């Protein structure tokens, strides 16, 4: 039987604010930068912070996880800081309800700074099969246009996303893999559906320390481009005490313009109702 709350099986995804690489192509600067930053964010998106790849772990009935993620990304001379908390509530042993809002601060030299609410992920997660060391799950939902000051999707538009998740738990090594699709409102010259592939490795050093490596590629939202922009993320997770984790991570994008370099930190707390 798959563990319902594995040692590091927690809910970034991924993140990634619904894989908002599509927003980068669809919207104008600075919203484009915001979309790219969130698509490359760890919690990103969907996974255990600072990972961007989702795992199959669920909280278990009446258990709650609050994940606080803070990231600071730089695109050329523009700096984006994003606070992205995520609340996951176990509705059943294998089913979670997830809400993930965001707050954004943007600064560009010579321009006034902008800050406000970003968009909000509203998701469900279902682990539908498990037999050690393998388990499989689906996470799906919508990115709701809750942003202010143009820091996200235009109001009235909704982006849908879905991830197929696989986890192999060969303690002390755990591997996660994702295949995903994100749909965004169509704009001329852009793809309406964006494919996503990612994988992560977690190496448990001892009871308190885990090292992580995570890589992803996403289909370019520009329909004329065949490249798949991607990123690599390295991180450390430290368990301060049972139910309380602290983490840090660093990420760099590849084959994407502008190049994104990003630092992130997180604090995750779990408790029972």
Describe the model:
By secondary structure, the chain is mainly beta. It has a single domain (21-272), classed as Beta Barrel (Porin), CATH 2.40.160. 5% of the residues lie in helices and 54% in strands. The chain contains two helices and 14 strands; from the N terminus they run ααββββββββββββββ. It has a twelve-stranded antiparallel β-barrel. It is globular. The two termini are 24 Å apart.
Features:
disordered N terminus; 54% strand; mainly beta; globular; twelve-stranded antiparallel β-barrel; 273 residues; Porin
Structural class call reads mainly beta
Q: How much of the polypeptide forms β-strand, as a percent range?
A: over 45%
Quaternary structure state of the chains depicted:
single chain
Sequence of secondary-structure elements: HHEEEEEEEEEEEEEE
CATH class: Mainly Beta
Number of folding domains? 1
CATH 2nd-level architecture: Beta Barrel
The residue fraction in helices comes out at under 10%
Strand order of the largest sheet: 1-2-3-6-7-8-9-10-11-12-13-14
Specify the biggest β-sheet: 12 strands, antiparallel, barrel
CATH H-level homologous superfamily name: monomeric porin ompg
Q: Rg, please?
A: 17 Å
Determine the mean pLDDT.
84
> How far do the termini sit from each other?
24 Å
Q: Let me know the number of strands.
A: 14
Low-confidence stretches: 1-46
CATH overall fold name: Porin
- SS field, number of helical segments: 2
């Amino acid at each position: 039987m798959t563990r319902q709350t594995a040692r590091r099986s927690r809910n970034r995804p991924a993140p990634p604010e619904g894989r908002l690489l599509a927003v980068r192509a669809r919207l104008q600067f600075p919203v484009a930068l915001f979309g790219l930053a969130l698509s490359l964010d760890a919690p990103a998106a969907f996974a255990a912070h600072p990972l961007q790849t989702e795992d199959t772990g669920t909280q278990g009935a009446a258990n709650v996880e609050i994940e606080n993620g803070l990231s600071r990304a730089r695109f050329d001379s523009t700096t984006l800081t994003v606070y992205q908390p995520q609340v996951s509530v176990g509705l059943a042993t294998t089913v979670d309800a997830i809400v993930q809002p965001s707050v954004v601060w943007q600064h560009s030299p010579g321009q006034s700074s902008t800050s406000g609410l970003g968009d909000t992920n509203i998701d469900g997660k279902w682990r539908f099969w498990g037999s050690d060391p393998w388990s499989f799950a689906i996470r799906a939902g919508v990115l709701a246009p809750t942003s202010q000051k143009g820091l996200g999707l235009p109001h009235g538009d909704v982006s849908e996303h879905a991830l197929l998740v696989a986890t192999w738990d060969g303690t002390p090594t755990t591997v996660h893999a994702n295949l995903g699709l994100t749909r965004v409102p169509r704009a001329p010259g852009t793809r309406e559906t964006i494919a996503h592939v990612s994988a992560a490795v977690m190496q448990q050093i001892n009871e308190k320390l885990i090292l992580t490596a995570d890589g992803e590629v996403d289909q370019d939202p520009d329909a004329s481009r065949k490249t798949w922009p991607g990123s690599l993320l390295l991180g450390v997770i430290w368990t301060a005490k049972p139910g309380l984790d602290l983490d840090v991570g660093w990420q760099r994008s590849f084959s994407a313009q502008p190049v994104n370099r990003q630092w992130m930190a997180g604090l995750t707390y779990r408790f029972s109702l």
